[in-house]
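Subject: for your reference before the review

Hello V.,

The reviewers asked for a structural picture of the protein, and I figured it would be easier to keep everything in one thread rather than splitting it across files. Below is the amino acid sequence we used in the manuscript, unchanged from the supplementary table.
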Amino acid sequence: MNTDMKHVITLDIGGSHITAAVVNATTKTVYTNTIVKESFDSNEEVEEVLSLWKKVIYTCFAKADVQKLEGLAFCMPGPFDYEKGICWIKDQSKYEKFYGVDVKKAIREKMELPADFPVYFQNDADSFGIGEVYQNPAFLDKKVIAITLGTGLGACFIDHGNVALHAVGVPKDGEIYNLPYKDTMAEDYVSARGLLRNYNNKASQSVQNGLNLYELAVRNDALAIAAFQEFGKDLAAVLLPLVQEFQAEALVFGGKIADGKDFFLPELQSLFAAHGLEPSIAISNDNEKAALLGAANLFLAETLAEM
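And here is what came back from the structure prediction:
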C-alpha cells in the first residue's frame, strides 16, 4: 500500500439525506464500494442526527481497505460558518435544532476523536461545483455557475477552475438562496417546497415530495408538468441577472429536482434566448460523487495550507 496516499471520508449532507464515501484525496478517486446512503429527518434532535452520521461514517470506513483515515470533510448547506464549523441554518425547514451548534466540536466528541483530528466543512454547492469541474475538464477554461436544486437552492461560481467569491456578478458569499425574489426570497420558489406548492395550490390532492410529482409529470399529468414549467420560469428569472453579470459561459445543474430537466429546462432556455443568452447547460451525471470529490479537494487544500 502506498503510504503517501491520503484517505478521507467525505460526506454530502442535505436536508433529508446523507451520502458518504472513502475518497483517495491524492488521486481524487471515490471508492465506490464504500458509498453509504441514508435518509433522515434533519429536524430531529441534534444527538439523534449526529448518531446517524456516526453510524454512516463507521459503516463507510468498515467497507474500505485502508489502514488510516486522515480526516473528515463535510459538504453542508448554509448559512454555516465553514471555517469554525458552526451551523447558522434557521427557518429553512431543515436543521432547525442545529442553530448555533459547533458541529465540528460535536462530531469530534460524538466520534471520540482527538481535539486536533482534521474535520473540515464546505458549502455543499461549492463542493458540487468543484467536483463537477474535476469530472468535466471542459469547464476548466470557462466561467461556470453550478446550481443545486433540492430541499434548498445552492450555487457555486467558478472561474477557470477556481471558486470565485468576490468576482463581479457574484452575490455575497456566493449564496443565491436568499436573493430577493417576488414577495420573499429565491429559495421559497426555486426549491422542493416551491415546486410542490406550484402543484398543490391547483390540484385536488396534494403530493408530499418531489419524486411523486416527477412521476406524475412522467405520466403526463398536466398539473404536474405545469408545476415544473412554473418552476423553470422562476429558476430562469433568478439566474438571468447572475448569468449576465458574471458572464457565465456554462451552467451545470445537480440535486434531485434536476432529474425533472425535461419539464423545466425549456422554460429556462426560452427566457435566456429572449435575452440573447445561450450558455451551455449540463446536468450532473452523479452530483453526489461530484460533491464528495469537491470535499476531498477541500481536505487537500486545507492540509497543504497548514503545512
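For the response letter, the relevant points are probably these. The two ends are 24 Å apart (CA to CA). Residues 137-288 form a domain with the Nucleotidyltransferase; domain 5 fold (CATH 3.30.420.40).

Happy to draft the paragraph if you're swamped.

O.
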